[in-house]
Amino acid sequence: ELLQTDAAGKEILNLLNKLAQAATHTNSQWDWLSFRHWLGVKLEENYFSPCNQFEHAVELLHLSQTALRKFDGVIIGNMIREQFPGTIKQTPFFNQSVRQELGLKALVNQRHIKYYYFRQLIESAPLILLSYHSGPQESLLSPWLELLSRFHQLAFDQSLESQILHQLMQRQTANNSPRNDTKKRNPPPTITSAMLPGSLSASAHQTLIQCPYAFFASQILKLRATEEISEKLAKSDYGERVHLCLQAFHAGGIKQVDGPFPNTIHSANKKQAIDMLSNIAKQVFANDLEDNFQHRGWLKRWLEIIPSYIDWQIQHETNWRFKNGEIKTTSQLTENLKLHGRIDRIDQSSEELNIIDYKTGSTPATQQVENGEAIQLTHYALSSPENVSRVGYLQFGGSKADIAEKCVLEDETLTNLKEQARIRLIKIYQALANGAELPAWGEEKVCQYCQFDGLCRHKLQ
Hints:
Layout: H1 7-23, H2 32-45, E1 74-76, H3 82-86, H4 96-101, H5 109-122, E2 128-130, H6 143-156, H7 163-170, E3 199-200, H8 202-210, H9 212-220, H10 235-250, H11 270-284, H12 286-291, H13 296-316, E4 321-334, E5 337-349, E6 352-359, H14 366-370, H15 376-383, E7 388-396, E8 403-410, H16 411-433, H17 444-447
Parallel strand pairs: 1-2, 3-5, 6-7
Antiparallel strand pairs: 4-5, 5-6, 7-8
């Protein structure tokens, strides 16, 4: 009902009706990710332009929306090579010469069409302003703007650059006198005890240690980065597929996927184990291969690692046996705080337990784990209600198709780290409940992967 009362909402409803009618002509069954991608593409293909209620309004338009229109003035921003003419979207099928010989639409036509719209636009208004970024990381100037500038210089012996705008940009508008006020500018936020989350995951615990402000943004304000739609598997997606393969191989229970392997793995049945895990991999990656031919690279990478993994498993089973995988754990740290986690794998030897976290990417340095900067492994040990005597990463293939255990903690070292992490977390929660600030540390290694760089107060100080 709310969408019916809104102009943009009506456009969305009309589009959904069209898509629903189109869906009646096919019997295809899609999983959620495929449907989400398809819907996202269709929404991106449609533009919504609100009704212009003002005679002299500023309109924000895509280049293709300006065709055959007249304006009082035009501002074209970001005149750099990456945008004008921009890069040509390549496809894995045929090069341009082959496409032309077959009578298919050549990819270079995209650039010709964009140039046509650009030519029309700069002739559609008496006043044109073209801008581009100039700074320490200056991008390459658009060849279209460069040609216009050179032609104007040769024809009229005059530069196209606006000296008035240069003067305005260089004018000192800020008061350079020292500030006398003693108050902090952009003080870090504080919270009350009621705002503290009652349960912490391993990632939230890590964020609290790395950057309190990022913890505030994600766990207190509940902010999330915009979900990106991608046609290609990312490294994180590849990791999820590997996790699923190993869960099916060791524990089974995955729909339409083989597994588990019925016997203890040893040299006599090594080939059977490799064959089963390889078949499982092909089944898990099957849908991805249908979506994008380039996904075969991820499958090939995993298939090359499988023999090394089976070799590691044979050696590992001399001391440990697989107990369970993909386990959700919870433990009560204090009256008001629980720790929870999702553990990739737990192995057992007599009465001892070994937590293994699969890693298809990089792992933290051992020193970071031992000094409490990288908290994931310690958090898993704390969140497990059972007695855990060993935790560590199992890394799948760095530059080679090999397997390596990294950052292994056990016995007294693990016990001490667990106690130190427990005491530190309790003290941090007590301090936050008493009004301690949540600053942004501004550590470069952390900031480069942060989702909240647009909100970060560290950049404003």
